[in-house]
Each structure stands twice: as C-alpha cells, then as structure tokens.
Design a protein that fits this description.
By secondary structure, the chain is an all-alpha fold. The chain has one domain. The chain has a two-stranded antiparallel sheet with strand order 1-2. Helix 3 packs across helix 5. The protein is globular, with a radius of gyration of 23 Å.
C-alpha cells in the first residue's frame, strides 16, 4: 500500500522523458510539494524512505543533470547550501553512525540540495518566473478551499483520504482546536507549518495581483464580482488566517513591511520610515514581552502566556547543553532532553542542538547573503512599474517571513524544501533574471511606446 508514494516519481519520469525537466518541475514537483503530505512514505527495506515529495524530485534532478549540468553556474550561495547539507550529514554520522546518517543525507539531498539547484537552474534561465508563481498561487488557493472542511469540522481531509494507504504513519500529526475551530494543518503536518507555507502563497499572490499578471475575470466565471488576482489573494489569505497561528501571522507582518517599501516611489525614504516604526514599536514590545514571560509557566494566567513562557525557558535550559558540543551538535535524535521540555519550538535552537554552530552559520548566512542582495537590488532598481511590482522586494519579504516564523516552530516536512526552493529561485533571479525585463516593466514599456500618427500600407 505504501508504494503509492512513488506515483509522483513515476509521473515525473514520464514527463521528464516526454517533455523536459522544467515541465516535470512545474507539472509534478510543485503540485506534490504544495498538495501532498511529506510525512507519508514508502518504507523501503535497506534503502532511504521516499515520500510523495521526495520521489517527485528525483527524476527531475536526474533529467536536469543528464541534459543541462554542464550549463551550471557556480556561486557563493551554492557553497553555503552544500556546507549546510555537509554539516548536517557529518554531525549525524558522528553521533549515530552510517545508517541514520544515510537517511538524513537522503533528506538533505532531496529536501535541500535538489530543490535549491532545480529552482536556480530551471525557473529564471527559462523565463518561468510568472508561470511558477501562478502555479504556486493556484495550488495554495486549492489547499485553502479544501481546508475549509478541516477548519469547520476539525478533521484533516488529507489524512482521511491517504491515511488508509499508510497504516501507523503520521499518527502524531493531529488537528488542534483553538477558539472552537480546527487550526488547519492541510497536508503540512502542523498548523504553524501550514501558516509558513500560506505566507509564501499570499505574498506571491499579491505580487501577481500588483503586476496585473492575471486576466480581470475568469472566463468560466464571468459573474464573479472580484477580479481574478484579488479573488486568489483573498483565498490564500483565508488559508493563512485559518491556521490560527500567531508566529506565521507575525512573519506575514514582517513581510508586509518589507513589501510596503517596494510599493513606495522613494524606497530609500521608505526604508527609514519602516526602520523608525520597527524600532519605535519593537523596543517597547520586546520589553513588555520579557516581563510577560518572566513569570514562568507556573505563574502564567493563560494558555497563551504559558506557551510563551515555555519557549523562553527553552533558551535558558538548553544553551548549556548546546555549549557542550557547539561545533557539530548532538545528532538528530540523540541530544539530551530536559525534563518537562521535550519539544523544541524554535528551529534555531533545535538546529544548534542537533547539528551545531556550523550548520546554523550556513543557515543564517543564506538569509544574509541571499536576502540582503535581494533587498539591496530592490532598493536600487528604478520604481517605474506598478507599485509592488518589484520581485526582489517580494522575495526578500518572503524569506524574512519564513526565518521569522521558524523561531516558533521547526523547519520540517514541506517547509524545508519550500524554503530552499525559494533560495534557489532568488539566486537564479539575481544571476539571470535581473537581465530580463519584469512583467510590469514590459507592460509599461508597451503602454508608452509611441505609435505612428499615420499608417501606410504598401501594395504590390
């Protein structure tokens, strides 16, 4: 029964052979990444365990290496990605031996290296920026629509449909209730992970809406009162709100602040205004938060305060354990557990515990190196398109949102390949895509192109 996890891989093989790796990337891998759970897998004896998402990317990667590996353009970001994967694999090998390291390395290759490489090599060099963004937004919109059932009834449709093929798998991913509604996890395991994914979809939806990439009306739904772009943006936003998770919401606010800079005609002045607002609001909020969590879990007056205090205590209780093996960490499952705090709801702390400062340094270096270059490029590019049409600013905001949100949850299941896909896409944009006119720029140029006042026809 579990062998159904290979179906996306077989479809990817067929599409790669019949058409191209980029067609399989868009047509099989992206739908698998957004629409299918990564916690169901085929338990292959003696081999790494492929899931829907992992099986989908392998044929695409092989097809790319066979056809286009010689065209690969190396950059410093590649070294950070490979350094991160190598640090994780080495850490696990030292801590738990070859068998566990083999499985984790397979996860790193299929969930870190391949998504990064394929996104870098296939999207921008082939002019697929808008097509990729549209595909992701439509998929996230579909996930939001399906998740209405989970929000109302507290039952996950993906587990109801696919769970029968994977007995005893995914049982730990349960729907949690808040304010009388189910916090939607969709196919992503946990509501916070779903929130992280939905932030990605919402920001891409807004970018497409601002650039006018969609037709005004869907041809088959002419009666629909909203324009296509607005309808899709609101649908994905509804999915984000239905997670009922504050961490991704705050990450979404951070992304919105970055994108607000991109909507300004004077972006340098907008940077100063946003920094002033962040400092003016952030410092008092941080001081109030320290007071809020200082009471500890015992003195908490609500479940929200208890959760915040728990996360604050994690740092205090686990940093001494981190310092015992700072460089390569304790391994994925072998780090010492503090009694009463087995769950590490902070990916940076968890990464430190498992794989040490070497992995964390590469991981944070990716945000600084890629996100910083995106932001600087967005600030410097001329603001001659529609407000919000800067792709660089949008991607910088998305990366900031993810890095902000994972301070409250681990980066796992579908969210890890999504992050590295975005990093690869951003790197490809900075290397190749900045040479192509954006969709908005092309439309503005076409609109202002002077037309001859008199047209002549030559007849022979």
């Amino acid at each position: 029964m579990e062998v159904v996890a290979l179906i996306p891989g077989l479809l990817a093989v067929w599409m790669t052979l019949r058409r191209s790796p980029q067609a399989a990337f868009l047509g099989v891998y992206l739908p698998s990444l957004v629409m299918l759970p990564d916690y169901y897998y085929w338990n292959a004896p003696g081999l790494p365990d492929p899931s829907f998402v992992k099986s989908a990317i392998l044929p695409v990667a092989v097809g790319f290496f066979v056809r286009s590996a010689s065209k690969w353009r190396w950059s410093f970001t590649d070294l950070l990605v490979l350094g991160f994967a190598a640090a994780v694999g080495t850490s696990e090998y030292r801590a738990a031996g070859y068998k566990e390291a083999q499985n984790l390395l397979f996860d790193c290759v299929t969930g870190v290296v391949f998504p990064y490489m394929l996104a870098k090599a296939l999207i921008e060099p082939n002019g697929l920026r808008v097509q990729t963004a549209k595909r992701l937004v439509v998929l996230f919109f579909a996930v939001s629509c399906i998740s209405l059932f989970e929000f109302r009834f507290g039952k996950n449709p993906w587990q109801m449909l696919l769970g029968r093929f994977f007995p005893y798998q995914g049982l730990g991913w349960v729907v949690t209730i808040r304010w009388g509604f189910g916090r939607i996890a969709a196919p992503y395991g946990h509501a916070i992970l779903a929130g992280v994914m939905m932030v990605v979809g919402f920001r891409l939806a807004r970018w497409l809406e601002w650039t006018g990439a969609w037709p005004k009306k869907i041809r088959r739904l002419p009666w629909q009162p909203l324009e296509t772009g607005r309808m899709l943006s609101l649908g994905v936003l509804a999915g984000l709100l239905m997670t009922l998770c504050r961490g991704p919401w705050l990450g979404g606010v951070a992304a919105a602040l970055v994108c607000a800079i991109g909507r300004s005609k004077n972006r340098k002045r907008a940077v100063g205004i946003v920094l002033a607002v962040v400092l003016g609001v952030g410092i008092p909020v941080f001081a109030a938060f320290k007071t809020y969590v200082a009471v500890g879990r015992e003195g908490a007056e609500s479940a929200t305060q208890e959760t915040a205090a728990y996360r604050f205590e994690l740092l205090h209780n686990y940093l001494d354990i981190v310092n015992q093996k700072p460089l390569l960490g304790w391994g994925r499952n072998t780090w010492p557990k503090v009694p009463g705090q087995p769950s590490i709801d902070n990916h940076y702390l968890l990464l430190l515990l498992m794989h040490g400062w070497l992995a964390v340094g590469c991981f944070l270096g990716l945000l600084v190196h890629v996100g910083g270059r995106l932001f600087l490029h967005g600030i410097r590019e001329p603001a001659n398109g529609p407000p919000g049409s800067s792709f660089a600013i949008t991607m910088a905001g998305i990366l900031l949102a993810i890095y902000f949100a994972i301070a409250t949850v681990f980066l796992g299941l579908n969210t890890q390949p999504m992050l590295f896909l975005l990093l690869g896409w951003s790197e490809g944009y900075l290397l190749f895509g900045t040479r192509r006119p954006s969709l908005a720029t092309a439309r503005v140029t076409a609109a202002i192109q002077p037309q001859p006042s008199v047209q002549f026809a030559r007849v022979l």
